[in-house]
Amino acid sequence: MSDITSLESELINALAQLDEDRVYDLVRKTLDSGATSEQILNDMNVGMQKVGTIFESGEYFIADLMFAGMIYRSALDVLLPPQTSVSSVKKGRIVIGVVENDIHDIGKDIVVCLLSADNFDVIDLGIDMKPQAFVSAVQRYHPDIVMLSGMMQIARDSMQKTIDALKNAGLRDQLYILLGGGCVDPDILDYIDADAAAMELSDTLEKCNAYVSRRYQ
Amino acid sequence: MKNLVIGCRTLENELLAAMKLCEKTYTVRWIDARLHNVKEKLNHSLQSIIDSAQDYDRILMATGFCGNAIDGLKTSRIPVIIPRVDDCTSLLFNSCKNRQAHAGSYFLTEGWLRGDSNIWAEYQYSLKKYGEKLTQKIFRTMFEHYRQIALLDTGCYPIAPSLAQAQVIADTFSLECAVIPVTIDFLTQLLNGPWDSERFLTVLPNTEITASDLTVTC
Hints:
The complex is a heterodimer. In chain A, about 55% of the residues lie in helices and about 10% in strands. Chain A is α/β, with parallel strands linked by helices. Chain A has a 5-stranded parallel beta sheet, sandwiched between helices. By secondary structure, chain B is α/β, with parallel strands linked by helices. Helices cover about 40% and strands about 20% of the residues of chain B. Chain B contains 8 helices and 8 strands, in the order E-H-E-H-E-E-H-H-E-H-H-E-H-E-H-E. The chains are: A alpha/beta, B alpha/beta. At the A-B interface, helix 4 of A face helix 6 of B.
C-alpha cells in the first residue's frame, strides 16, 4: 500500500510538473502495483488541480494548461485501454456536445473518453451545436442523459436555449440533463433548468452513474 | 455627477477615443488584462476599485461580464453600471449576436497585441520551453476549431502595424487573416447614458451582483 501511495504521489507531481513521459510511465507502474483506475484517475485530477494552482500563481501559461490537458487525455489511453472496458451491455446512452457559439472541446473530449471507458454508450455531437441538433439527436438515439458542455459565458445562454428546445419538442421530461465545462459554476442551476451540473471530471462520472443506477434499478 | 470609469488595458485605445468623442474627462482606473486569466483575481481587483471609489457618485465599467468575474461584486454607496455583454469583444461588436456571426475567429486588437500575455507571447514562451515540434502540437490543438485570426478595426489605432503582426500570427498557425470593422458605440453609450436595462446592468448601491443579474444583450 505504501508503494502505491508513493507512486501516486509521484504521479501527481509528474503531472503538475508536466513531465509527459514520466506521467505515462507512472500510470503504468501504478496500475501494475494494484491501484484501481478510479484511484489513478483521482490522482490525475489532483495533478490537474495543481496545474491550475500553478497557472493561477502566474508561473504557468495557457500553453502549459493546454499541454496538461493533452497529457491527461493521452494518459487515459494508457489507463483505460479499450479491452478493459468492453462489455456487451452498456450502462446507458449519453448524447454530449459543446453548445452553440462555443468551440472549446478539450474538456468534452476527456469526458467522452472517460464515459466510454466506463461503459457508457456515448454519442458525441461535436462543437458549436445548435439546440435543434440536440433535439434531433435525442429523437434519433433516445439517450438517458444529455450533456451540454461549454466554456465561454455565452454558452450558458445556449445551454438554456437547448433545454428550451428539448422542452418544446416534448423531450425534456424523459432526460437527465447535465451541464459541464468552464462556464459552469456552483450557482448555474439557479438560472438554467438542468438536472445537474458538474465542475469536476469525477463529479461527471459519479452523476452519470448515479442517474443510470436510479433509472434502471 | 462625478463618474469613475473602470477600463481594461486591452481597450485603452478605444476607451480613450470614446472619452474624446464624448468630451468626457472622467478618471479611469485601469485593470491589467492578465487578471482575466484568473476570475477570482479579477474579481478582487474590481472589488478593490469599487471599495476605494468613495469620492465618486457613479462607476461606469467599460468592460463586459468578463467570464462572470463580476459575479459576487458588492457595490458601496454608489451605483455601478456595466454593459450587458459577455466580454469586451462583444462590446466592440455592439452585441453578443453580432460577435457570434464570426464564430471560429480568434480576435485581436492593437491593445491585445500590446499586452504581455497575448497569444504571440504564449507562442514564444512555448517555443522556448517545449521546442518547435511540441509547440506546434500544442497550438494546433489550441486552434483546432479556429479558422481565422480576426483583427478588429475599431478605428482607434493605425491598422497597418497591427495587421502585419496579425498576418504573422495567422501564417504561423496556418489560419486565414481578416480585418473586421467594429465600433465604439457601446462605449460612447456607456459614457453618455442613458443606461436602458436591455443593454446595461445597473447595480444599485449596497447591492451584490448575483448570477441571475448576468443576462447579456443580444
